[in-house]
Amino acid sequence: MKNIITYCLLSLMIPATSLFADQEEKPLYKDKKQVIEKRIEDLLSRMTLAEKVMQLNQYTLGRNDNANNMADPVNDIPGEIGSLIYFSSDPELRNRVQHKAMEQTRLGIPILFGYDVIHGFRTIYPISLGQACSWNPGLVEQACAVAAQETRMSGVDWTFSPMIDVARDGRWGRVAEGYGEDPYTNAVFAVASVKGYQGTSLSSKKNVAACLKHYIGYGASEAGRDYVYTEISKQTLWDTYMLPYQEGVKAGAATLMSSFNDISGTPGSANKYTLTEVLKNQWKHDGFVVSDWGSIEQLRPQGVAADKKDAAFKAFQAGVEMDMMNRCYDQHLGDLVKEGKVSQDRLDDAVRRVLRVKFRLGLFDQPYTAVTKEKDRFFLPASLAIAEKLAEESVVLLKNEHKILPLTNVSKIAVVGPMAKNQFDLLGSWAAHGNQDRMVTIYEALKAEYQGKAEVSYAQGCNFDGDLTSGFEEAKNLASKSDVVVLCLGEKRGWSGENASRSTIALPAIQEQLVMELKKLGKPVILILSSGRPLDLTRLAPLSEAMLTIWQPGTPAGKPVAGVVSGRVNPSGKLSMTFPYTSGQIPVYYNQRQSARPHQGKYQDIPSTPLYEFAHGLSYTTFQYGDIKVSAAQLKRNTPLKVEVSVTNTGDRDGYETVHWFISDPVSTISRPVKELKHFDKQWIKKGETATYQFEVDLERDLGFVDGEGKRILESGDYYVMVKDKKVKIEIVD
Ligand code: NOJ
Q1: Mutation pick for ligand 1 pocket among 172, 292, 295 (CB with most ligand atoms within 8 Å)
Q2: From the CB of 160, is ligand 1 less than 6 Å away?
Q3: Rounded to whole angstroms, how far apart are CA atoms 77 and 72?
Q4: Ligand 1: residue whose CA is nearest its atom 11
Q5: Considering only the top CATH level, what class is 387-585?
Q6: Residue 498 near ligand 1, beta carbon < 6 Å
Q7: Does domain 14-360 have CATH number 3.40.50.300?
Q8: Which of 351, 603, 631, 685 falls 20 to 30 Å from 151 in CA-CA distance?
Q9: Is 288 in the pocket of ligand 1 (CB under 6 A)?
Q10: Residue 10 has what pLDDT?
């Protein structure tokens, strides 16, 4: 019924120019030789109010197995719709719907097809939190480029990625989707993924438009509960949350998604300051903002809109151009314009932005997707190689007592635990069209890795949760006959992601109990942990000789794990998010602000330091750091500053080492965090060799700070530049 009304409206409102459409020459907007801005203006001048409004809506199409979302039947899709969330991976279905838009509507405006390609389309990469632990943005860019190619070739032009919400509470399920607790890290990976997705030209059939999300502050969700209030002062907004978006916009991200969260009283999807004053006016973003699913309609329960019409008004005026599945714009925007509440200028600005992205994607000139075979799109050897390397580099060796790893000279390995013979949960929460077909379990991978060298046997031991201990006996029998126990534990994939908050980040008691039981046998225990968040490992750490966190590695599944366990791969990952001592310590993150009494204010019952700090991660080799050298210890503003440190591989094997450069500003007009990451660099160092790591400091960018309006300020005085336990003082003089 709704669509019939839309069609009637459309036919009633056709402007005079189009009555002669048949006799008209090819309209300018269809001429690919014309520049995009001219084409937009020409098209805009031909559009009716209803046609304009329809461009600002997104419905869904195809399969939808996400319980939080519901799909529309295909036949209901009006050809005039601006965008569709495309749940299928079949180019033919896209082409059928696109045909409707191109051939059966008055103006033939192509539909923009979007989808959540978060860590891969069919070839699945590790979750973003794990990707960040690789500290290898070049590799992440390559992974995103592969994802883009698989995506575009499957009929999707636009991904709702990257998620760059700084997040410091592991209870929040969505920490899995971002790059951890640090603003700079999120910024670097935002740029890497935008470059990977969008390449050098959006119109290439291998690239997709990126979407920075969730703008902004969603990661500050109170106590890790999803969709709730966030208390963010303007100073914190700029200090903690803006940088990744600012850099992502600079890198050319075509779109942004407005967030669900209420930012100190003004929800992200009705926030004129962030959406218009900052994004459009200050940063000059000329693409568009899509709402999150339902985030406009949700302005009602959030208490800032009386009804859907009011919600449409508030979101649109604030700067949200496209309505994702709220059914607010399609129902009310036309009336709001007719009533003069929304200006024609704002409407045209919004439509222009949407059309601009469509033109840049080349959709007007090539609206259809070539129909190719799946085997020519997915799991190409080069794509799988990138996935495997990224999964290897994401693994973090948390602990390795007596150098128990790598496991050599063993003849019997017991592989135990609910994650040992599991593929599904290694995929991660937003696995798009990923499937288990090619995934080898950790058990199978270890068997293959140790073929001819050691006997590898399996017992499940327990489930992920519940209280069934009936499998303990079998696991203990196996362990007692083995030289070592490789215990594979962790979280189901549904335990992280959207709407997947947990009150504790410890593993369920049954898994901890299994570790305790096996430890009693006196065999060395190696814990392999797969999760979508940092874990509370305080009780497990003393019960194991070694611990590896593998996150959710995606398609490569068990193979990289087996490589690290056997020593074929030297682990190099370092944490992108702090592992707290207990859930009660949350929020705990490395860049906390300075305390009034650093020596006091500690917990009485637990340490105040985390179990594993940000950037912690071991290698099978050892690295020795030299002193930091600076090009000048005292300098004026606008002077270049170079700092460097040499790192020697003092162990007995080659390996990667990532150097993290931190700064601190002990005295400032606005108190600064105890330290802040400003640069990182990863190099391969052969055993016995020394590498030099350099950081070209831009004084204003790296030593300065932003105020609550985003203005950068560099004050004179002392600063420190730090790597590991090395520290050097820099003085800025006027
Ligand atoms: C809601 C999620 O918050 C967002 O990240 C996602 O892109 C949309 N749903 C579309 O699936």
Answers
A1: 292
A2: yes
A3: 8
A4: 116
A5: alpha beta
A6: yes
A7: no
A8: 351
A9: no
A10: 38
Average pLDDT of the segment spanning 429-442: 93
Residues in a beta bridge with 256: 212, 289
Q: Are 647 and 623 in contact (CB under 8 A)?
A: yes
CA pseudo-torsion sign 30, 36, 37, 40: positive
- Per-residue pLDDT at 192 exceeds 90: yes
Please return the burial class of 75, using the count of CB atoms within 10 Å of its CB with bins 0-12, 13-18 and 19+: exposed
Q: What sign does the dihedral 57-62-65-71 (CA atoms) show? A: positive
Q: Catalytic residue at 483?
A: no
Helix (H, G, I), strand (E, B) or coil at 471: coil
Whole-angstrom CA distances from 662 to 244, 571, 695, 725 are 17, 23, 10, 11
pTM above 0.90, yes or no: yes
Ligand 1 geometric centre to CA of 66 (Å): 10
State if residue 581 touches ligand 1 by the CB under 6 angstroms criterion.
Answer: no
Cβ of 213 closer than 6 Å to ligand 1, yes or no, is yes
Q: Which of 116, 157, 292, 536 is flagged as catalytic?
A: 292
pLDDT digit string, tens, across residues 447-500 = 999 999 999 999 999 999 999 999 999 999 999 999 999 999 999 999 999 999
> Burial of 598 by CB count in 10 Å (0-12 exposed, 13-18 middle, 19+ buried)?
exposed
Atom 1 of ligand 1: nearest residue by CA position: 293
Mean pLDDT value across the chain: 95
The domain limits of the chain are 14-360, 387-585, 623-733
The identity of residue 465, as a single letter, is D
Statement: residue 580 has pLDDT above 80: yes
Nearest-10 crossing angle of helices 509-519, 472-480: 30
What residue's CA is closest to ligand 1, atom 9? Answer: 293
Instruction: Report residue 72 CA to chain centroid gap.
Output: 27
Å from CA of 161 to ligand 1 middle: 9
Distance from residue 208's CA to the centre of ligand 1 (Å): 17
Q: Is 174 in the pocket of ligand 1 (CB under 6 A)?
A: no
CATH of domain 623-733: 2.60.40.10
Cα angle: 433, vertex 191, 40; to 5 degrees: 80
For residue 437, the model assigns a pLDDT of 86
CB 258 within 8 A of CB 268: yes
User: In 10 A of CB 411, how many CB atoms?
Assistant: 11
Residue 161 CA: which ligand 1 atom is closest? 7
Cα pseudo-dihedral 271, 272, 273, 279, rounded to 10? 100
According to DSSP, the residues that pair with 693 across neighbouring strands are 645
Segment 100-119, tens digit of pLDDT: 999 999 999 999 999 999 99
> Residue 25: what pLDDT?
83
Would you mind telling me the total number of residues written for the chain in this entry? 734
